């Protein structure tokens, strides 16, 4: 099992450590839509609890068709999983890359999945002086000895999206050099103004696009994600050889209906539109914080004071933020916070005012 400190969302452990009841803690460390799961889905789950008394369809035909309809692609190019995480591990297991390039700081599970195979891992470190943006340096780092590159757009934890023209060049270069390109778009639903790389899928069979439904629809406990690729042979092999029934029946049901919930989508965009600005502006006012403009539902910043522990200080006030000290390429001055409701965001700002008073 992954260590509890490796991801955000460890409310129970952190509350216990600080002598608090979990209800006294506001969790800014996990990037989950604060709207909670869509009401329609909640009702649907209640109405369909008895589906748990049967095995789900082993092929998840309706689920795959719903995802394919949403992306206007063929169901053969879709593979659903028990959260995006399962698909990262399945992909690494069935591809068995010999050499991978990881963009760091990035999501920790790519490395964990690759380390289970006999893969050599090279790091492409994003630089603070480049604003942690992917630059043309990445093009030169793409060499023929690589089997795969992992990219995350928007990136976790930096929240940045690469320039779209540069992204198309990266895709083209990977294709030219026969490098499989794994693009994690788990947070892209939060940024409707950015185009998905799914538009390249038909043209590039070396492209694999990962999506998660757990963040946007606030379902991290239900578990649902999917992979899209026109490498139908790989998807077919995984389909044939993976363990059966890893997606529970309620998650499968959710995936069949969530994409049509336009009301939930609109409410989420309206909330994020206002709260992204609010929190970025408010945190940017602190002279000891350097904030990076967010694109999705979380905000990445650096505390310019060297020897303080902002996570500890805020936790003493019942606010849990994500320390980014354990990301490759970062240190304990870096943090990530989820963007939440106005009320919670204001509490974060007020608590920071107290904590940073002497900075
Ligand atoms: C970038 C990224 N990809 C994938 C995942 C995993 O998502 P899921 O909950 O669908 O397994 C996460 C979870 O934090 C993430 O940050």
TrEMBL record:
InterPro entries membership: Aminotransferase_I/II_large, CobD, NHTrfase_class1_PyrdxlP-BS, PyrdxlP-dep_Trfase, PyrdxlP-dep_Trfase_major, PyrdxlP-dep_Trfase_small
Domain Aminotransferase class I/classII large: residue ranges: 24-351
Names of the cofactor(s): pyridoxal 5'-phosphate
Listed EC numbers: 4.1.1.81
GO molecular-function term, one example from the UniProt record: pyridoxal phosphate binding
CDD domains cross-referenced by the UniProt entry: AAT_like
Keyword match Protein transport: no
SUPFAM superfamilies (UniProt xref): PLP-dependent transferases
Gene3D superfamilies referenced in this protein's UniProt entry, alphabetically: Aspartate Aminotransferase, domain 1, Type I PLP-dependent aspartate aminotransferase-like (Major domain)
Enzyme class: lyase
Pathway annotation from the record: Cofactor biosynthesis; adenosylcobalamin biosynthesis
GO-annotated biological processes: cobalamin biosynthetic process
Catalytic activity: O-phospho-L-threonine + H(+) = (R)-1-aminopropan-2-yl phosphate + CO2
Keyword terms: Cobalamin biosynthesis, Lyase, Pyridoxal phosphate
Domain of life: Bacteria
Function field: Decarboxylates L-threonine-O-3-phosphate to yield (R)-1-amino-2-propanol O-2-phosphate, the precursor for the linkage between the nucleotide loop and the corrin ring in cobalamin.
NCBIfam families named in the record: L_thr_O3P_dcar
Name of the protein described by the UniProt record: threonine-phosphate decarboxylase
């Amino acid at each position: 099992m992954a260590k509890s400190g490796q991801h955000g969302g460890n409310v129970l452990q952190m509350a216990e450590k600080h002598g608090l009841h979990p209800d006294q803690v506001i969790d800014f460390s996990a990037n989950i839509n604060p709207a909670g799961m869509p009401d329609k889905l909640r009702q649907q789950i209640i109405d369909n609890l008895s589906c748990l008394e049967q095995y789900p369809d082993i092929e998840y035909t309706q689920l795959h068709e719903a995802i394919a309809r949403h992306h206007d692609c063929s169901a053969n190019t879709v593979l659903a999983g028990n959260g995006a995480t399962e698909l990262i591990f399945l992909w690494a297991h069935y591809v068995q890359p010999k050499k991978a390039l990881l963009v760091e700081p990035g999501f920790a599970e790519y490395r964990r999945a690759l380390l289970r195979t006999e893969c050599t891992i090279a790091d492409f470190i994003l630089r603070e002086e480049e604003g942690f943006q992917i630059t043309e340096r990445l093009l030169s780092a793409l060499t023929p000895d690589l089997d795969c590159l992992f990219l995350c757009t928007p990136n976790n934890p930096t929240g940045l999206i690469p320039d779209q023209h540069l992204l198309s060049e990266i895709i083209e270069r990977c294709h030219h050099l026969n490098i499989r390109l794994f693009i994690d778009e788990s947070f892209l639903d939060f940024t409707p103004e950015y185009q998905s790389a799914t538009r390249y899928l038909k043209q590039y069979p070396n492209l694999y696009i990962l999506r998660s439904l757990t963040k946007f629809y606030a379902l991290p406990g239900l578990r649902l994600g999917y992979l899209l690729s026109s490498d139908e042979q790989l998807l077919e092999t995984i389909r044939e050889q993976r363990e059966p029934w890893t997606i529970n029946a309620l998650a499968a049901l959710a995936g069949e209906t969530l994409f049509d919930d336009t009301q939930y989508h609109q409410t989420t965009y309206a909330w994020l539109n206002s709260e992204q600005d609010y929190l970025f502006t408010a945190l940017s006012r602190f002279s000891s914080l350097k904030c990076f403009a967010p694109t999705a539902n979380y905000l990445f910043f650096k505390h310019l004071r060297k020897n303080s522990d902002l996570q500890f200080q805020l936790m003493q006030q019942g606010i849990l933020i994500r320390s980014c000290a354990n990301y490759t390429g970062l240190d304990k001055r870096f943090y990530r916070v989820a963007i939440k409701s106005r009320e919670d965001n204001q509490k974060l700002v007020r608590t920071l005012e107290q904590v940073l008073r002497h900075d």
